[in-house]
Fold these 4 entries.
Entry 1:
Amino acid sequence: MSHAERQQAAIDFRQLLDKAAQQVADPWFALPYSSWNVTTTQNAYRERVYCYELYHQIRVLSDSDGRAAGAPLFVASGELNKSGLHSVIQGGKHQPDLVWHVPGNAHENAVVVEIKSLPGFMKHGPRKDLETLAAFLEAGERSYERGILLIYGSLVPHRHHHEVYDQQSGPPRIRARVLETADELQAKATDEGETKNSPQVARHRPTKGNALSDDARRRISVLWHPHVGQNLNDLGTLERLPIA
């Protein structure tokens, strides 16, 4: 398979992902739950519940359209263990939320996806997710063509209220948080490069994780899925450019 064919599969997967996300309905988007001391039913974002339904919808769509994004050769694999002998990078311990690849062929890799609920994203940030995406995009011959950070949901719970992210306030706030983390990871790469040339290098501990390069930033896209049935909002790549 040529590099151009892998790139096309990655580009087409973006459309497949958008269609699949639109099919993720309640209760998989927001899971109803009850508590022993609360009389009313409440809803909460549960990442595994959302992810598993998204995997299912991708499979349904790719099976119904045998040529979608390189299918049936390319398939979606969720939470694939990429540690040990199966690591994408030597010594790596990665388990991405979703990959679009040709199983059994280490060189036919199209897209790697990390998924976070909006509350989880705001609480913990995207550092771990961006490090995973960077590792998969910069793995030599095993590299993936594109990376996607998919954030879903529009409500962030607080103690006495829910903060709403609407179509006006949501995109710039989410993008700003992602870019801030991307800048930190890229600065880490610069610092590590300077440390290697320092006479005091022995005093420095090795930094864990993977730093972002300019090339990786261009190939990672941020998508936001705010509500059931809606299209994915494309918030752009990790390059410091205004939202289209």
Entry 2:
Amino acid sequence: MKRFFKTILVLAFLFIGLDFAYQKAAPEIEKTFGTRNPLPYLTAKVQQFISPEKIQNDNNAKGHTFESNTATVYLDLSNPTLKQAAIDGINIWNNTGAFNFKMTNDKNNAKIIIKAMNDGQTNAAGLTDTQYNSLTGHLIKATVNLNSYYLLNPSYGYNHGRIVNTVEHELGHAIGLVHKDGISVMYPQGSFYTIQPSDVEDVKKLYQEQ
């Protein structure tokens, strides 16, 4: 019984000591974390460390980049029109010298995969999903989806040039570019313009600053 009361007494003093220390430290905790209860913040950081990979789509892109201005690309396309447009879009980007896309036959190790989708529920002719490491901010993988529902339907007016522009636009998202108003390949309706000198400068700046 004496041991029990002694344990209770020790725990009580320990609790009082911890409470006193917390009250002293509370202003600094609030200054650092913006709250006197940093547990949710610290929990989120631990979860982020355990599982650092995050997925986003191009509508929420925040300019994440690959570690360097080079990435391997796998073409998961059977339609010859889309496949040729993808090849042309890659070559146009490569000719700018701002980024180097290297085509590969190894799908599992490709940084970027270009594939087809057929979805009339979205109004987008292309969508890009990117996966990045939330600790480093660097992109890990990107998937470019070319929407055949629009691109291959003559009633929507997509000729080869507009399909190539769409590829260029989505590859821009895949390497970290965001939407941009004005004459730019990253114009939100991404099939009207090819890559412009300002787009090249945007990529160079993005990868010089990383």
Entry 3:
Amino acid sequence: MSPTAAAADTTAAEGMVYTRLGQTGLHVSRIILEWDLWVLDADKALPIMKAAWDAGINTFDTADVYSNGESEQILGRFLRKHQIPQSQMIITTKGDFHVAIDDMKMMGLSRKHIFDAVDASLARLGTDYIDLYQIHRWDYNTPIVETMEALHDLVKLGQVCYIGTSSMHAWQFAKAQFIAKQRGWTPFVSMKNLYNAGYREEERDMILLCRDLGVGVITWSPLARSLLTRKTGTVRAKSDMSREFMFGKTNAAECEQTTNDMVVAHVRTIAEKRGVSMARVAIAWLVNRPGVTAPIVGINKPEDIEDMIAALHLQLTADETKEIDDAWAGRVLPEARRRVRVAGRGGLLRQ
């Protein structure tokens, strides 16, 4: 059963829920699927994509840099294999980084690179347009005026329907939106940022700004790279890397003791009492946060899709929500904020 357009925050029984992206008329599924062939090869990705589509997920997120363009190619292959009209699927992709070439000058948010990157993404996807085109990171080497005008022109050319952005400082986002409004150009309609029960720095400024401007918030790493699914006494290299990734080497151990362990423990306790997975509890907490449109989830096997959709219908009690909320230490983490929003081009972050 393919997804269909729906009114804001609508659902069919216990299935997928749809909502508007910010103040646009675009209806997205409240679970967005993302995959990366660095983690999952094409033979495994295609069945997951089909299961997600059949379950009602109508929004698929990728980026030109994911596996040097192969991720976009696989999405295009999926559309053609199952004869899915582009009008029924919402495709979101991103540009900024260099793809499959060594020349580092061929990256960033200059007018030339944006136009070249969109043409290349369209060729890999095999589509006529991109529903939501996002800039992957802020470009300190290109005036934002040049970037915003180029994005506006792409919308007017019909190659892009909406534009969004990802992981930057609130002042940068506000500046870009102000320039667009001042000059009558297309503004950003979405912000893709790092936000989960174990990392809530975005609540200080970015999410408040997005709510005030009516911008949709789509969150990456909703499970903190599996940290929020960690069982008692288990040791996972990926989870340990996630803790350092979000909090930095210098204070990773301290934050683990004061924040992460407490958050994970509460998520685990609630999951055990409810008889559900920790992932379901973490996603349920996230989708009910003010301003959040949808989390972007990476799924490794088709059966995980049902669990993610079920999270949309799991209603945490006020006490359960408070337990998770109170575990957040609310400390200022300048190193983490710098790493998340600025360091992406060095290969540290590619979400």
Entry 4:
Amino acid sequence: MKNLRSILFALVTILLINSLFNKVVGQSNGYLNDPSTNPLSQEDLQAILEVLHINIFKFNIGLPIEQKCSAVLYRQEYEKRNLINETIIWGTSNPFRTLENGVEVEKALDQIRIISKKDNDNFVLFIRMGDFELANYTIKYDSIYSNPHDCKPFKLPTKYNIGDKFPLLLIGSYWDSTSKDGKMKTQRFCWELKDLNNDFSDRAFDVMPHYIVFGIQLEKQ
């Protein structure tokens, strides 16, 4: 399994080289505005990520710097709506300390980034929150969960208080479905086009046989 950071670095490098190449070639041949020589766009990059089964999720939680607390990353595993396992992965603080131009400064925890790479039977995650970074976090599925899995983000709360616990990302299984006339069988995953409700009220949670939730809990420091 390639490191997610290496894959993304390679993609960015391809974009930069492609952009520079097209600019130089276009200028030298006098057809810089020719659409056929346009550099790769964000849509092109998104298409490449989809082919590679990579998703990038950014959660703009925007905690104010004066709201001092710990932000703990947790993982929950469910069978349908039954919680069967919960694990604390790691945590950071708000504000967190980091170096900026060689000087230690305090910064608010304003964003959490999760990058996922899907293979046939597992997900590999890269997670960044504050001064905490976790690479190549692998989720393997037990053989009893034969349906493929996919991921989808949750809606963020509108405000945050100490003691709050809210989900960020779902990795859930498809479920078997039959057409209304009973003639066709298929597999479905999360009817909703929008982000999932953070109170688990979406219909998908009633039929999804297995899913994993990553979320944040805010605690007193």
